[in-house]
Design brief:
The protein has helices spanning 21-32, 39-49, 52-62, 69-80, 98-109, 125-133, 173-197, 209-222, and strands at 10-14, 36-38, 89-92, 117-122, 135-137, 144-146, 200-204. The protein is of the alpha/beta class. Helix 1 (21-32) crosses helix 8 (209-222) and helix 4 (69-80) packs parallel to helix 5. The longest helix has 25 residues, at 173-197.
C-alpha cells in the first residue's frame, strides 16, 4: 500500500451508519497526523457524563433520530476553534443535514479554512445491518468489538478494562432500519451540497479495512494535483 503524504488536510467522513467511518477516520488520523473528531463519541461521552447536552440528547439518540442541528453544531464549533484543529482534521459524523453543512462552511470560512474532501463510503444495506447487529461496546471505557469481525478475547468482557460488553440501544435491528431511513431522508441530500462544490469522492466500503483505507489514501494523495 502506498504511503499517504503527511500534510495538513481537512476531511469529512461520510456514509450511512455502519459503513466504517469511525474505523477509517481513526487510521487516517494517525497516518495524516491530524485530529479525529467523532461527533457520535462526543455525544455518548456527554450522555454518560450527564451533562445538560447529554440529557437532552439521550432519548433522541436511543430512538435512532438525529440530534438537533443547534446542539451538535455548537459542540463541533467549539472543538473546531481549538488550536490543534486549525491546520487539519477529520470529521466523522458531521455534518448530517444541509443546515449543519452550511454551519460548517461558515465556521471554517471565518478562519480562512475550507473542507478539502468529502469521502463518501458506500456499503449495501444488507451488510450494514449485519455489521451493526454484531457490534458490542463497553459502557465503561467506550471500546468497540464485533462478534464476527473483532470479538473480545473472553466472552462479553472488554479486553481493555474488563467491563461487561453491551449492544448499543441504537444497534437493535428495528432501530437500525430507522437510522438508515433517517439517513436517506435527511443526510443523503448533504452529498449534493458537496458534489456541487466538486469535493465529493465515493469510495467502495466493501472489503478488508486496509483495502478501504488504500482507496481513501489514493484520494488524499491526489488532492491538489488535478
Amino acid at each position: 500500500m502506498a504511503a499517504t503524504s503527511v500534510r495538513p488536510v481537512r476531511l469529512l467522513m461520510f456514509g450511512a451508519p455502519g459503513v466504517g467511518k469511525g474505523t477509517q477516520a481513526a487510521v487516517l488520523s494517525g497516518r495524516l497526523g491530524v485530529p479525529h473528531l467523532a461527533t457520535g463519541d462526543m455525544l455518548r461521552a456527554a450522555i454518560r457524563g450527564g451533562t445538560p447536552e447529554g440529557l437532552q440528547a439521550r432519548a433522541i439518540v436511543e430512538r435512532g433520530e438525529l440530534v438537533p442541528d443547534g446542539l451538535i453544531s455548537a459542540l463541533v464549533g467549539a472543538r473546531l476553534a481549538q488550536p490543534d484543529m486549525q491546520d487539519g482534521f477529520i470529521l466523522d459524523g458531521f455534518p448530517r443535514t444541509v443546515g449543519q453543512a452550511e454551519y460548517l462552511d461558515g465556521a471554517l470560512r471565518t478562519s480562512g479554512r475550507t473542507v478539502d474532501a468529502v469521502v463518501n463510503i458506500k456499503v449495501p444495506e444488507r451488510e450494514i445491518t449485519a455489521r451493526l447487529g454484531g457490534r458490542r461496546v463497553c459502557p465503561a471505557c467506550g471500546a468497540t468489538f464485533h462478534e464476527a469481525f473483532q470479538p473480545p478475547r473472553v466472552g462479553d468482557v472488554c479486553d481493555a478494562c474488563g467491563g461487561r460488553l453491551e449492544r448499543r440501544a441504537d444497534d437493535a435491528e428495528e432501530v437500525v432500519r430507522g437510522r438508515l431511513e433517517v439517513y436517506t431522508r435527511q443526510t443523503a441530500p448533504v452529498l449534493e451540497h458537496y458534489r456541487d462544490a466538486g469535493i465529493l469522492f465515493d469510495v467502495d466500503g466493501v472489503g478488508k479495512p486496509e483495502e478501504v483505507t488504500g482507496r481513501i489514501e489514493a484520494i488524499v494523495n491526489g488532492l491538489g494535483r488535478g
